[in-house]
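Example record

The entry below shows one chain as it appears in the dataset: sequence first, then structure tokens.
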Amino acid sequence: MNVTETLSQGLKREFQVVLNATDLKTRLDDSLQDLQGKAKINGFRPGKVPVAHLRRLYGRSVMADVVQNAVNEANQKIVADNGLKLAFEPQIRFPENKDEIEAAMEAKGDLAFTVALEVLPKIEIADLSDVSLVKPVAEVPDSEVDAALERMASSNRTFASKGEKAKAATGDRLLISFVGTLEGQPFDGGTGEGIPLDLGSGQFIPGFEEQLEGVKTGEKRTVKVTFPENYTATHLAGKAAEFEVTVDDVQGPEAVKIDDELAKAFGMESLDSLKTAIREQIGRDFVAQSRRKVKKSLLDALDGKYTFELPPTLVEQEFASVWSQVETDMKEAKKSFADEGTTEDEARAEYRKIAERRVRLGLVLAEIGEQAKVQISDDEVTQALVERARQFPGQEKQVWEFYQKNPQALAEIRAPIFEEKVVDHLLGQVKVEDQTVSREALYADEDSDEAPAAEAKPKKAAAKKAKKAEPKDSDAAEDA
């Protein structure tokens, strides 16, 4: 096997690999000899099938395996001999000349192919001794606990009939029965009896509740609505419908009671224990938000410390993921770039910067984690996988088996754990000062903080919608 580097441009490398006909024949003969000891063919004793006969029967398929093994061997040799870290799996290009391929498959001619690589850049770890971060922390105010209690009490409040003459208003609950039709014909899912509807809740399709304002018990009304274009039942999406509605009862909300009985309704022994539980939960939320804030500040500081060439394909893949989400969100919102005060070209340029930032910081975190020898235990992965499975009630077993059988999917479970451990490592190296702030200050700029911390903050409002998952770059970088 002869390997020659033919291109070294930035992070791109290409090598030409040549397997001469003699080498191909030797490899083929060795494989057929190995097959001879295993083959079971009618008319021949085990291990006694002539090699020439095996060549006629299986020669081409065996040679295909020979070539694949040679490709794998070449890839490993190129990476090892040149000390490369790959950004992606090598791309193999075989000759386009069919006669050349056929000759190689018969071991009568040389086989030359090209291995194209994209490598990770070499990253020198920056000095962080001059980095100082402010970590906002907030105490849980009594008002926050009281507000949570009010919401819980409201969600658990009871309703009582207002009588036959009372008119329904926002905040009241209706018990209704209805029959829906499309062009005069009933449709599946369009009929209901004794269905509760809280006026003002927005739980029914747009326009439905408003037409029932002021109804009385026993009253009948025809409600005319149009299903949203993105309605989940595609056979109803965008269609006009009529509902013949009968109001079975008009009920008004009873006074909200915040007492021990409310606590028991939520599985707690007393109101005090419920308040304690609420305070602890809000406290955990505050801690998580504080963590997000200081992590974002840390990654902002890292972003200013590193400048290096990025693997083009990594950037393109990240940009494609972000841009796809942008297009989906704008389509669902029925907005254009003009509505957001920008153009598609400007938006693309802005999101490409976000993609580049994600890739850059993902690679930096991966390199820092590797040099710091950050490890993820099997128990940590298992715990994270259990949490993921719990997100799909009734399908826990299927989710568990899916991840166990798919290494790439399991890597998506490992990546956030790895990233958080690297962040912990870095926070231990920089100066972090706690600063007590209000709840409002802690959650200020919440839209941008919901995003992956590695993202730059887009200028346009629509940009917020592309920010959904943790930086994907660290997934690839950790495995590189």
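Notes for this example: Residues 139 and 161 are 42 Å apart (CA to CA). Residues 447-480 have pLDDT under 50 and may be disordered.
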